[in-house]
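TL;DR need structure tokens for one chain.
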Amino acid sequence: MGSELLALVFNQLINHCPNVNSLFNRVITAPTEFGFTNVTDSCLIGVVVCDNPNEYLFWDDYHPTTTADELIGELAFSALKPEPVPEPSAELALLLIGCVLGYRKLAQYVSALPSLACRGK
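>> reply
TL;DR here they are.
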């Protein structure tokens, strides 16, 4: 079940891959719309951290800040479409009903057979 779910999520990501470059371009074009005041500089300069890292798009020269990571996560999550998953309890109930009905049918069949225990004696 776990590998099936992983395959489902992977296929959805491939088919609905979020465009992070487009998101970054939108943020750079309208930073205040996303709560940023600085989208060009890094928050971390050497070993000194800026006073307001949540308002920066980039943590250092390569990595986005936590705030930017949240935007990327929201974009990725919105790309996934929920797939209905059957309730395990319903499957178990159907299996149990099938077993009970099958057992009753088997019991009727066996009771209708002539006794084989005494044959030949």
